[in-house]
Amino acid sequence: MPCEPESARRARLLIASALSAWAIEELVDAATLVVDELLTNTIEHTRCRASRITIRRLTEDRVRIGVSDTCRDLPDMRQPGSGAESGRGLVLVDALCDRWGYDQHRTWKVVWAELRLKATQ
């Protein structure tokens, strides 16, 4: 997808469609917010012209969302001041996800986040 704000809507639709196809719609709200934050970080903090959005079902109860780009800079979760108007993206991702991280490759990286279905009892 092009690294432009308009791509965030398409990324959210992609994630929602995959979760719907897998019949795990209960993750849609959190997952679409996560992909939006990860893609926004790429758009705002890199000079990449395009990124790749992926979603994989790792197990019956776990999915991984990834946003790839060609920037070598690594994600940095900062604690913004109370008056800051931005800088909370990865803090939000961290709160919503079971775990998150990144994989660095020679010419690209992927920042990923995993969400897990809550156990029903």
Care to describe what's here?
The chain is an alpha+beta fold and 121 residues long. It is 34% helix and 25% strand. It contains 3 helices and 4 strands. It has a 4-stranded antiparallel beta sheet with strand order 1-2-4-3, covered by helices on one side. It is globular and about 40 Å long. The protein starts with 6 loop residues before the first helix and ends in a 5-residue tail after the last strand.
Number of domains: 1
Structural Rg: 14 Å
CATH superfamily descriptor: Histidine kinase-like ATPase, C-terminal domain
N to C succession of SSEs: HHEEHEE
Strand content: 15-25%
> Ranges with pLDDT <50 over ≥5 residues?
none
- Looking at the structure, what is the overall shape? globular
In CATH terms, what is the architecture? 2-Layer Sandwich
CATH top level assignment: Alpha Beta
Helix content: 25-40%
